[in-house]
Amino acid sequence: MAPHGLSGGPGSRSRAAGLSIISNSALIFLKIIAGAVTGSVAILTEAIHSGIDLIASIVAFFSVRQAETPADSSHRYGHEKFENVAAGVEGMLILVGSGVIVYTAVSHLVNGTEIQSLGFGIAVVAFATAVNLVVSHYLYRRARETDSPALAGDAAHLRTDAYTSLGVLVGLTLVQITGETWIDPVVALAIAVAIVYTGLKVVAGSWRVLVDEALPDEETTAIRDAIEGFGDRGVAGYHELRTRRAGTRRYVDVHVQFRSGTTLEDAHAIAHELQDTIRDRIRGADVLIHLEPEDRVRPGEEVGAARVEGSETAH
To answer: What would the mean pLDDT of 94-101 be, rounded to a whole number?
Structure first.
């Protein structure tokens, strides 16, 4: 079934990912120059971070292009999970980047560092912060509208980069005021901690989808309410409700029992109406309903039967 309720036409996700590639490429160039001119390890770690962001943006770009490809004979369920794999890769890249930053910062903390031309460095970092905040906000909005995990992961990269740039900005300002250069690598270490948190969060979100974790409770409840709303349309009960997610799409499988005397034609028509109702409540839902006779209803699974926290016991 084709998903409903997703904003943006074909290619909208890849265009958003393309913008991220352009912005990251420009910021890497600026940060490398600023790092070389000032000698600031914090700015150099920001350049490393942006380099990893660029790789992540490229991964996101190609993954959303692949995810937008229609289902074929080799991938009957489509290519949506490419986005979840990409999000996992992006999360691991974030963790790798944090390791590089820790190594560089500790080295400079032990051996000392000399920082020059702070004004230029501060200006570059401030500009990078503003650009990353704007682009990450746009990517987050597109991720919400299209339900794209790859864009959400890319946005997380840039948002983290923006926050860490703010930390660098504060650190460079303190160095300029106090003259204490050890503040610079310490700020870089603090940045690494923030990056690790973001990386773990992105990896965990991707992993949950790849192992077919059920949809959130609020979405499952919406599906149950939709089914039970058809009690006066001939639906007698339901069971074997299974849900999962792949990329932007939700998959819903359920066995629905119809009251005795309901013709196959009527049951089929009602099932299609039920599919449409579920899609209206759960965007991007691909709904598969298995039709069964009323004698397949199990005790406690009747439509309208009371449930407490998902219990299958009827009162």
So the answer is: 78
